[in-house]
Write a structure and sequence with these properties.
The chain has about 450 residues and is mainly alpha-helical. It contains 19 helices and no strands.
Length: about 450
């Protein structure tokens, strides 16, 4: 093909990427705002009730999600992972393919169809949206950002998939990319985070960062951000590092220590969540065991802190930590208990995301270290939150985009970015050692009947 013949075709692809990104972004933003606003309204009502209601509601929410996914949808919408597969032998592989947590939540479909979003199972989105509302809205400790990406890609790709007109079918792929970026951007109000999130997830399936994908993701992210700004939405709360470190040495020490602790804790959490999702047991067994563990964790957090700190994605725990006069050890204990609670909710069959719970776990880890480091709680919390995302979800570019655009003094933001690097550096060996020498040995030592592979492909 000569250059003159190639130019119109390439211009058409670029135009389709822009059009698809805008279309998918607008449709996805409307859906994500509707679902997230519903979740927030239900959760706000739950937190205004008596303690016994707050602690009972998450169990009912998980039960509702299990019934919706496995009975109403005949199991087609339930998430599954192959828990019997051997982890990579080469340590260098862990530098590229990170934490299993990404494959244990709703982003697994986003990863699996990256590069061919027109194949996204959009038909499952309505039943999953109901399961998300049931799980997260009634207070189970799962999050909303992964659902936003999942529903965003579903809404975007559905606008073109199965359409009669060929030109509209060609928009399915860029609309899916733009929808995923818009879902995250409208939730957080940070377009760069939505853009980087969807592209970085796509790299899990080696989806190329091509110009059409960049255009579609950029247009979708800007569409989501525009709707967030126009409607003045406040769907998710992020801690801004308003107080900078006193010196370069203090910044380096804080970045290293907070990064190591947040990265290690969140990495262990991510590995545990993946094992919980892949546990080969009956549906009723998983529901009962997971629910019992969830109730135990919620009761423990409510006794140490408050019932509001025990439920929800993590905003209640952060609000409690901001005003509580407790030691760093107590804060760290609450972070670990919430990590266990999220793992239990996943085991029981809850439907939701892991990004926000890991963010709140990292936030609490950072606050626990703040007094000893001599840094402000907001700086330590912001750095810890970024470290939790980078370590447990292993999305370092997304974490950096978040801390660099959320606001605050430049030195504070750079400290948080350095924390991301330290968190990843701590998370990689922890994940490798856990999966390779501890968790995988436990799986392979079970009888064959107990370790039969799952039917799902994530």
């Amino acid at each position: 093909m000569d250059s003159r013949a190639g130019r119109p075709a390439y211009a058409r692809v670029a135009a389709e990427a822009v059009a698809g990104g805008i279309l998918g972004g607008l449709v996805a933003s409307v859906l994500v705002v509707a679902v997230t606003s519903t979740i927030k309204a239900i959760l706000a009502w739950i937190t205004d009730q008596d303690s016994w209601v707050m602690l009972t509601a998450p169990f009912l929410g998980v039960v509702g999600a299990v019934l919706l996914l496995n009975l109403v949808a005949d199991g087609r919408a339930a998430q599954r992972v192959d828990g019997a597969g051997a982890p990579p032998r080469r340590f260098s592989a862990w530098l590229r393919f990170p934490a299993n947590a990404v494959r244990a939540d709703l982003t697994s479909d986003v990863v699996r169809t990256a590069g061919h979003e027109e194949d996204f199972p959009s038909r499952l989105a309505p039943i999953r949206a109901l399961a998300i509302i049931s799980t997260v809205g009634l207070g189970a400790p799962m999050g909303t950002e992964s659902p936003a990406a999942h529903l965003g890609v579903a809404a975007g790709s559905a606008t073109g998939s199965g359409a009669r007109h060929a030109w509209l079918r060609r928009l399915a792929r860029p609309a899916g990319v733009g929808g995923g970026a818009a879902g995250v951007a409208v939730l957080m109000g940070l377009p760069l985070v939505g853009l980087v999130f969807i592209l970085e997830l796509g790299r899990r399936s080696r989806a190329p960062i091509s110009l059409p994908r960049m255009l579609a993701a950029t247009c979708g992210a800007l569409a989501g951000w525009a709707i967030n700004t126009l409607l003045k939405l406040d769907l998710i709360r992020l801690i801004v590092p308003m107080t900078p470190p006193n010196s370069l040495w203090q910044a380096l020490v804080a970045a290293i220590l907070v990064g190591v602790v947040a990265g290690a804790v969140s990495s262990v959490t991510g590995a545990a969540i993946y094992q919980a999702r892949g546990w080969q047991a009956g549906l009723v067994t998983k529901l009962l065991v997971g629910s019992a563990a969830l109730l135990g964790c919620l009761l423990a957090v409510s006794m140490i802190a408050t019932p509001a700190a025990a439920i929800g994605p993590g905003a209640g725990a952060i609000t409690w930590a901001e005003s509580a006069q407790v030691s760093g050890g107590v804060l760290l204990l609450v972070a670990i208990l919430r990590a266990c609670a999220t793992t239990a909710a996943v085991m029981a069959g809850g439907c939701g995301g892991l990004f926000v719970p890991l963010l709140s776990i990292g936030d609490l880890c950072g606050r626990a270290l703040a007094p000893g480091l001599g840094v402000s709680p907001d700086l330590a919390a912001s750095a810890g939150a970024a470290g939790g995302v980078a370590g447990g979800y292993r999305l370092p570019l997304t974490a950096c985009a978040m801390v660099l655009t959320v606001g605050g003094p430049l030195s504070g933001r750079l400290t948080c970015a350095a924390t991301v690097l330290c968190a990843v550096g701590a998370a990689i060996p922890v994940s490798y050692l856990l999966d390779r020498y501890v968790l995988h040995r436990a799986v392979t030592s079970e009888p064959p009947s107990a370790a039969s592979p799952s039917t799902g492909k994530h």
